[in-house]
Amino acid sequence: MSRPPRRRPFPRSKVCRFCADSSLRMDYKEPNLLRLFITERGKIVPRRISGNCAKHQRQLTTAIKRGRNIALLPFTVPRR
Amino acid sequence: MRRYEAVVIIEPDLADDEVKALTERYSDLIKSQEGELIKIEDWGIKKLAYLVRKRDKGRYVLFDFVSGPTLISELERQFKISEHVMKYLTVKLDEDVNLEAFKAGGPAGETAPEVSETVETAEEVSEESVQSSEEPEADKEA
To answer: How high is the ipTM of this complex?
Structure first.
C-alpha cells in the first residue's frame, strides 16, 4: 500500500521579517528579538517555518549562538 | 586597527566600587596598548539563561573599543585570570578602522560608530565556552 505523497502544510509567514523591516537589526545583545526565533526548548526555528530569507537566517543563527554563549539565550530548556 | 566589543559577565554580588575598579583595570589595559575606548555600558544585574558557576544572575558590562589584534589575547587572558569574571565574549565589529579619522569624528558625532555597526561583517573573535560544555545535559527528549 503506497500512500499518495502529501505535503503537510505548515504555518509560514511568507516574507522575511528582517527584509520587510530594515530597522530590525540582528544583534546578539537583544535576546527579546531573538527569542521570537527559538522554540520553547531553545532550538533555532528553521527557515521554512519562520520564513526568513537565507541571508538573514544566517545572521540570525550567529546572533543566537553568540547570545547563547553569553548566557542571554538558553542552549536548552530542560523539561520540568 | 579593528573595532571590538567585549561583553563580560561579572559576579552579581560584587560591590559597585569593586565593579568599577575592575572595569577601570580593563579600560586601562585597553588604553595602555594604544587602544581607544569608545564606551563602557553597564547593563546591570540580569538573569542568566542558564547557570554559570552555579549562579543564575550576573552583571553584564560591555566594552566597545578600537585596538589592534594583539590586545585581544591579553585582554582575554586577564578575563580568565580574574575570579570575578564569570564569562566573556569578544566580537569583532569592524575589520578596518582608521583610528585618526575615528577620533576626529568619534567624540563629536556619535554617528560614526552606528554606521560601522550595521555592517554585519562581525566575526567571532573567540567564543569562550568555559562552562557551556558541562551545561544542562543536552536534550533529554528521547
So the answer is: 0.72
